[in-house]
Amino acid sequence: MRSATLRSGRKFSLALVALLLAACSGSGGEASGPATLTWWHNRTTEPMKSVWQKIADDYHQAHQDVSFTVEPIQNEQFQTKVPLALQSSTPPDLFQQWGGGQLADQIRSGKIAEIAQAQLGEYGKGWQVNGKQYGLPYQMHAVGFWYRKDLFTQAGITSPPSTLDELNAAVAKLKTAGLVPIAIGGKDRWPDAFYWGYFAVRQCSIDALKNAVAKTELTDPCFTKAGENLKTFLDTKPFQDGFVGTPAQQGAGSSAGMLANGKAAMELQGDWDPDVMTALTEDKQLDSKLGWFPFPTVPGGQGDPSVLLGGGDGFSCTTRAAKACEGFLQHLVSEEIQKKLAETGSGLPVNPAAVASLKTETHKTISEHMAKAKHLQFYFDTAFPTNVGQALNDAIANFFAGQGDPSTITQSVSKAAAGNK
């Protein structure tokens, strides 16, 4: 993210929420009157698909001059659909936005509306470019290991791993018990990047992480070492057979579906994973069977163990109906809506008044880790400019498939960045 590496927003002030978006919209010259907002979001499954629709319907009831055409779009399609839409004459008025280098790229279209500075503490900075606000987060996210308590018990694992050695030992025990240790959605490529990203976070100092994003480079030796550590981990063969062709979130055979249905013991995913899994299983007791632990420490690493890999979900407005869109964004970070979103288990609230409404104690635990983290490293593919992030993800995915070496990953960033100059 532009300020692509964010710390947790524990300094967030509730008093400032009331000031949110008090200034004028940066859209300029927008005609007044009724507006119908075309809204692209990535929640294509229940319950969140209906939650978003109800939020839109309720907002329209309270603001008759604002209506919505809601278009849920599969998460992976945003990478191609948004750039194309911004080149057209009819982009969506409101669309999913992850900030960072991708947002900076999108601003070049001239169709992203500047909005008032959102008083969301450190969280809001992830949707700023050159000090100007071009979107708002409605949820933050942290990646960690989700695991099946019942399968851990079956394999004789008495506590979640806290070190890499303990994780490797758990993988071995699960294999001995005839279980798939870890599911991964390699077909979608970005889940692979979580592993390289976390090995980098555990190997590299906070300063090294910040410098890498600021300079769009991975020249610090710690990033090559992260790739070497990843290779050693891959050599333990912790994933399901055919993981390269497994989707992450689509269908019962996806990596999320495997965990949901007890076909695998772990998955390295975001805090949203249980929300995804709900639509992929008939098990109504799933939440009680799931546990979570942060990515383990790595021997010899210089990374602060409190650092998390994550990001956030937000929305940006385009210029056609920016004022109406901006008002809706303000609504999404209100205490009322933040509590409703927290109850779904789909993410961590940006409004601290809603933390108590999180769906499970596990999500509250993740929120506590977020609050204590000395640094939140935004997903590298989002922190970097779009083409650089895509090149990095491709190199990591190829590495998972047995192609290239640790230096190939770091060099992918330098090569892609050179193309931007």
From TrEMBL:
Record-linked InterPro entries: Bact_solute-bd_prot1, SBP
Residues spanning the signal sequence: 1-31
Q: What is this protein called?
A: Extracellular solute-binding protein
- Coiled coil: which residue ranges? none
Upper classification of the source organism reads: Bacteria, Bacillati, Actinomycetota, Actinomycetes, Pseudonocardiales
Q: Which UniProt keywords apply?
A: Signal
Matching entries from SUPFAM superfamilies are given as: Periplasmic binding protein-like II (SSF53850)
Superkingdom, natural source: Bacteria
A Pfam cross-reference name:
SBP_bac_1
